[in-house]
Amino acid sequence: MVFLLKMKPFKKAIVFKIEYLQRFMQQTTNQLIAGCKKGDKKSQLQLYTNYCDAMFTIACRYLRNKEDAKDAMQESFIKAFGKINNYESTYTIGVWLKRIVINQCLDVLKKQKLIFEDLDDVEYEFEEESDWYFNDAITKKDVLKAIESLTVKYKLVVQLYLIEGYDHEEISQILQLPIKTSRTHLRRGRLQLQELLNETKVKTNKEIIQQK
């Protein structure tokens, strides 16, 4: 009991320190944003340094070529600094930057003519939320790898929905397609994903058997 009593102030100190650091980091970010709005180069460089790795990771989800992803990420920051005065604190700066990066990647894909199909050819189908449960043997790494192999138009919707957390209304705005089409692409992408994951599971089981 004495030990627990001694620990309580220690825990409170940790919580206080974490909250202090969070407030400090937010203040620092706000200062950087304010500097960027004034065109301060040092603030721009620091904001870029703080977020470039995370934004590059996001770009790599959409563009398989790392050089294309790097170019898209850098172009996104140029665009972001160009319209930083439009940024409002309704969203965090990270969320705002992510949206710009995704849009830039989609522009690259459009130029490469990898998207989209004729919307008149789409047969509308809808997904069930419960269908997103995967077998316990399937890892997150398996899922991410399988998503990379999806048909591009389905991959985009699956990534935006499953990984980025956007809803169909937001996906519709980002991809500039009807909500019904977004739902249909998600359902078809899920079916492709399940097939790929089933193949992964079979291969894994076969490898285990061969090792015995």
UniProtKB/TrEMBL annotation:
Signal peptide segment: none
Limits of the RNA polymerase sigma-70 region domain: 47-113
Domain annotation RNA polymerase sigma factor 70 region 4 type: ranges: 142-193
Regions that span the bilayer: none
InterPro entries associated with the record: RNA_pol_sigma-70-like (IPR039425), RNA_pol_sigma-70_dom (IPR014284), RNA_pol_sigma70_r2 (IPR007627), RNA_pol_sigma70_r4_t2 (IPR013249), RNA_pol_sigma_r2 (IPR013325), RNA_pol_sigma_r3/r4-like (IPR013324), WH-like_DNA-bd_sf (IPR036388)
Keyword annotations from UniProtKB, A to Z: Sigma factor, Transcription, Transcription regulation
Keyword Disulfide bond part of the UniProt annotation: no
GO biological process, one term: DNA-templated transcription initiation
Top-rank taxon: Bacteria
GO molecular function, one term: DNA binding
Family statement drawn from the similarity comment of this UniProt entry: Belongs to the sigma-70 factor family. ECF subfamily.
Protein name from the UniProt record: RNA polymerase, sigma-24 subunit, ECF subfamily
Annotated source species: Cellulophaga lytica (strain ATCC 23178 / DSM 7489 / JCM 8516 / NBRC 14961 / NCIMB 1423 / VKM B-1433 / Cy l20)
